[in-house]
Design a protein that fits this description.
The protein is of the alpha/beta class. Helix content is about 45%, strand content about 15%. The chain folds into 3 domains: about 1-195, Rossmann fold (3-Layer(aba) Sandwich); about 205-290, N-(1-d-carboxylethyl)-l-norvaline Dehydrogenase, domain 2 (Orthogonal Bundle); about 295-430, Rossmann fold, CATH 3.40.50. The longest helix has about 30 residues, at about 200-230. The structure holds uridine-5'-diphosphate-xylopyranose. Uridine-5'-diphosphate-xylopyranose binds near residues 150, 151, 153, 209 and 251. Uridine-5'-diphosphate-xylopyranose binds near residues 149, 259 and 262.
């Protein structure tokens, strides 16, 4: 099939590349000329495991091309994906100007039937709004479909190639037929393609992410309570997770959820409910708890150092909001850095992928180390903010020689408590016994 993808951000690039991989001809279009030029030269603009192989292969075989020319991109496309940003506007509601603007541009160019797919996470009712733009500007038959993405950063290629489900919101039989054909190769294992109306599809995305954010937040609160009552959150996690209705996944407590999706989507759903005079109380609680959880390590430090962090120097392992990504959007590490600097402490940080992105925002207010051990030099304590595999089994001898004090505040529960006792550390983790 012939496909156009508008927007080559994270979602657009993964979508375009993975669609090319099953034999479709894909043209990706973006307004950013420098970025398009780079991609035309085979340079991949994001870090996503496994994507580079598919990216280079499909470019080499001519199924994946890049342009800045919208007219060229959509001319022969039967299906046009819109993967455009929907940043939170000043009031927390998603800003639709990119999507509605692109719809208007497309509506002036189309000459034959096309399916327009909304891939971005958009408020309920957006498909109707986009459809209205087409109705206003062209007499050509166009079906606007909602088809949210459920890609996790770090495993996005797998999530696209073998999705748990594909959600498609459309009431058009013609569009359904085309999309069944398009997505068929991705659900061969038997996972469902779920057809529903546009509004239900749009809400499915927000509800899925908000539910997952709630699940994590619930566990973070259980962990906080564990610390107070002397229980072990790992045991509780396993105890509840074995119940199929709860499930083992997504129950790991930590220092709050971050990233480009959960914070934005929870906020947008709460806002949408507000606009319809519905007070979505759970979501308000989730947002409040998560704000506090992001700096729970700093609260622990303040307690340990009797409210005085002035002149203290901390090593920080992990900057990205989660492992296997360089994405630092809403990363707890940024909130921690901010708080530490406010309290007069200094920080030396290491992250396997996220350093450049942090440098761009934080600049020289902190030191950046070229490996995890260098970050420990002269540090009063080590703080762990991201569960990168490389931090899971470090060289403890080397750590001992470098750290000024054997003190670890671990926001991701990486180490075995017995081991920390044996090694003689002060070890403060989340929802588990304090080792001191
Ligand atoms: C998420 C959704 O999973 C994906 O389906 C959606 O479409 C986009 O948003 P992503 O933001 O890439 O994906 O990250 P994910 O792996 O879901 O983690 C989100 C946040 O939750 C991270 O900050 C992570 O550290 C945190 N998390 C996750 C926990 O704190 N505990 C867990 O058990 C799982």
């Amino acid at each position: 099939m012939k496909i156009a993808v508008i927007g080559t951000g994270y979602v657009g690039l993964v979508t375009g590349t993975c669609l090319a991989e099953t034999g479709n001809d894909v043209i990706c279009v973006d307004v950013n000329e420098a970025k398009v030029l780079k991609m035309q030269n085979g340079e991949i603009p994001i870090y996503e495991p496994g994507l580079d192989i598919l990216f280079h292969r499909n470019i080499a075989q001519g199924r994946l091309v890049f342009t800045t020319d919208l007219a060229v991109a959509i001319k022969d496309a039967q299906i046009i994906f819109m993967a455009l940003p929907t940043p939170p506007g000043g009031d927390g509601a998603a800003d639709l100007s990119y999507i509605l603007g692109a719809a208007k541009d497309i509506s002036k160019l189309v000459t034959e039937y096309k399916v327009i797919i909304n891939k971005s996470t958009v408020p309920v009712g957006t498909a109707d709004k986009v459809q209205a733009v087409f109705t206003e500007n062209t007499s050509v038959e166009i079906d606007v479909v909602s088809n949210p993405e459920f890609l996790r950063e770090g495993v996005a290629v797998d999530d696209f190639m073998k999705p748990d489900r594909v959600v498609i919101g459309t009431r058009s039989e013609r569009a359904k037929k085309l999309l069944l054909e398009l997505y068929g190769p991705y659900v061969r294992q038997g996972n469902p393609i779920l057809f529903m109306d546009e509004r239900s599809s749009e809400l499915t995305k927000y509800a899925a992410n908000s539910f997952l954010a709630t699940k994590i937040t619930f566990m973070n609160e259980v962990a906080n309570l564990c610390e107070i009552v002397g229980a072990d959150v790992d045991a509780v996690r396993k105890g509840i997770g074995s119940d199929d209705r709860i499930g083992k996944r997504f129950l790991f407590p930590g220092i709050g959820y971050g990233g480009s999706c959960f914070p934005k989507d929870v906020q947008a759903l709460a806002k949408a409910a507000d606009e319809h005079n519905y007070d979505f109380q759970i979501l308000r609680a989730v947002m409040n708890v998560n704000e506090k959880q992001k700096v729970v390590l700093v609260d622990k430090l303040l307690k340990y150092y009797k409210n005085d962090l002035k002149g203290k120097h901390f090593a920080l392992w992990g900057l990205a909001f989660k492992p296997e990504t360089d994405d630092i959007r809403e990363a707890p590490a940024l909130y921690i850095i901010n708080e530490l600097l406010k309290h007069g402490a200094t920080v030396a940080a290491f992250d396997p992928e996220g350093v450049n992105n942090v440098k761009a925002v934080v600049g020289d207010k902190i030191q950046y180390s070229s490996n995890q051990y260098e970050a420990l030099e002269g540090a009063d304590a080590l703080l762990i903010a991201t569960e990168w595999s490389v931090f899971r089994n470090p060289d403890f001898d080397r750590m001992e020689q470098t750290l000024t004090n054997k003190v670890i505040f671990d926001g991701r529960n990486l180490y075995d408590l017995e081991k920390m006792i044996d090694l003689g550390y002060y070890y403060n983790s989340i929802g588990r016994k304090l080792i001191n």
